[in-house]
Specification:
heterodimer, A: 713 residues, alpha/beta, Phosphorylase Kinase, domain 1, Rossmann fold, Dimethylsulfoxide Reductase, domain 2, 4 domains, 7-stranded mixed sheet, 6-stranded mixed beta barrel, B: alpha+beta
Chain lengths: 713, 169
Amino acid sequence: MALNKTLLKINKIPGDETGIEIKKTICGICEGSTTSCGVNAYIKDGRVIKVEGMPEFPQNQGTLCAKGNASRQYIYNKERILAPLRRVGKRGSSDFEEIGWDEAYDTIAEKLLQIKAETGPESVVFGAGFTKWLRPFAQRLGISFGSPNFATESSTCFFATEVAAKLTYGYWGGPDLSNSGCLLVWSKNVFFSATPLAKKLISAWKNGLKIIEVSPMATHLTRYADVRLGLRPGTDGALALGMAHIIIKEGLHDAKFVAEWTTGFDEYTAYVEKFTPEKTAAITGVPASFIKRAARLYAGANASSIMTSASPTVHHTNGVQNHRAIIALCGLTGNFDRPGGNYVVPETWNHVGTGVTTRHHEFTFPRSFDEMPPRVGADQFPIWTSLINESQSMYLPQQILSQKPYPIRGLVAFGYNHRMWPGSDVFLKALGKLDIFVDIDLFMTDTARQADIVLPACSSFERSQLHFYPGNHVIYTQPAIDPLGESKPDSEIIFDLAKRIAPDDDLMQHGYEACLDWVLKPAGLTVEQLKRHPSGLTISNASMPPYRKYEEGGFPTPTGKMEFVSSLLRQAGIQPLPVYNEPALSPHSEPVLAEQFPLVLGTGTRLPMYMHSRTFRNKWNRDLHPHPTITIGSRDAASRGISDLDDVILATPRSSMQVKARVTDTICPGVVNIYHGWSEIEVNHLFEPDYLDPISGFPGFKSLLCEVKKVLH
Amino acid sequence: MDKKLAFWFDIADCSGCLACVVACQDQNDFKAPDMALRQVSSLEKGEYPATIANISLACMHCGDAPCLMVCPTGAIFRHNATGVVDVNRDICIGCHSCEMACPFGAPKFAQDGKMIKCDLCITRIENGMKPACVHTCTTGALRFGYIDDLAAEKTRSASIKILESSKEK
């Protein structure tokens, strides 16, 4: 019996005999509509001793990725900040002293209110790094304080795809996978970046789904793809226009939908006429026969949908137009908002759409932007500002440094990372000009070292969080463990600050859960009710919106139609068709520079063990990929005398750094990739701070020119 | 032996996501990478676009286990009911004979010098749970079960594939 008990303990079997209890929570490492997996946290004496995917959770059904499985090394990391800190040394040093929460709050409030009185509330920017769950509260806090400026990582992730969609259709929807005959996967590696989709995709494929993969890399998806289009990075728009050329020429488009529900089709048709398969092949590097096959497959299936990702199509200086050209294929073939096509589900909460209605918008935006001063980036990126309810963060360093059109003096940031900005050294310099920089984080990051006050946040295991999932599942988690040290949930920090800097916001004064009840009211849900469902609740009677919503009242665009020719872009003096222009720095656009820097550099391609900078500290993750490493094709490597795992210098016109080389034939010849976010090298020093898409302000992180040289020891 | 338990691995669906490796480390509190009792290897074939094959490997719980035969102290033993190959660390002397005999590199050695190996999470299975690596597998490539059942399932799904393809022709 004693032996049995030991075995149960060693194997972490929950129950009375071992004192191990399973508590339900969700993973917070990568947040979004396709992730935020349900987790069984094995708790013993108040500590997490093991994690695993929650089997009954519809999103991930028991699975968990390499990052989520290392959660304990994230929660109990030795770099966790356990008390509020005040900087006593120079910016960038580790010289901080511990202070109490009240002192920290009072210091912050005094300074922010002083700035508000002197130069206006807009001089304080509120923001968030990758962290998503806290954004509605943080943005409301900023607006209630009086500032229009909420600057997040979404200025370089995902939102440019939304700009493209809003310009073209007014809204957008993901693939209606269960009814699709063909899925066009445009550069998304779900097997690494959205593992809950992996089984669903494989199962759909086994049931006959045809898959087209567009990617400069061969991935695990290639195994399931009927056609793989291996394009040169940044030529996505040309490829999509080339597919449209075939579709129109062969009469495979939906003439009825196009006639009734689109504008600018004739101009579009005339434009795509130029993108013959041969010309498209010359631009993209994809063989003409593959382009034809893909176009016929996509347009010929009963119903086809497009799966795009947050960044690969829009991390280019021509990104928005590229993305518009891609999603135009959906309307062209009549696949917009139809069964098996791209199905529009309105937002329920925090960018996740379900059949449940909440007051998410009313909560987040207690005041209209029209009543406030212009946001950061409004002059430079007016299209962005008119379509996206945030500031354009990429312009933040320039405005801090230039003080134009008004000074930025304070920054309250949740999990900011200066390595998010191209020319990240410039952003570091800008941080040094602020009167007050407050960073809220779990760890003492290189960015937090620049802050005046650092407040300790906690992980998803230590807080209560509302999350909606596609399929009408909702959870309000309860803490699986107490927050470590004096750390607090970001929500508590936000509501504590609201008492001091937004006392007129009556709703916020009632606290976090009262606000959630207010948000959930139209859904007939309450926090108390959700607490009774620790694994979450599937709202079975939620009414999913109908297909073809445009048939009632048209598209939410200026013309009420799908716009091949965008009215908003035309008004702004920007080419209104989804035109193809080369990336600003490419072997075609800058042939002379390309003699010195002949390779195309892409950064940020997903790896299975990392999520931005979040899991580098986890030993189990780090050991799986210990060194900053480029991937380079075997011929490009051989011509440079480079062997696998050699030390190499990666150089762009702006900067250079030493990394390791991984020689692989899974990457398109002429292309080099490197993961971002490493602290020992500054990948974003390789980019000029103004290497941006002029429409969205998004950096061209996935198409730059570079050269690689072997380090001779 | 009543019925033999085994891992079942579909090489076609393994994406190389490494979740199984970390799940094993978390289950067993391992501190270093080479202490994971499950390893994932990838192999590229051909020119660009090369195909990638991934394999997730742990102890195979061999029917005729070489580690068990060479163990001089009898520390390595087989669970009668399930066929799982396990080690009694109390009598292991850390001689590494099993490491030399094993064709899969399954035996690992902890800081105390003694052998440690995958026991198919047999205690979890006995308590109605799946092995940690199987539970977490993101693609369904890794499963476990009684070897007869797994074989029968393979026969069934292969038969369906053959029948379907003959119907198309």
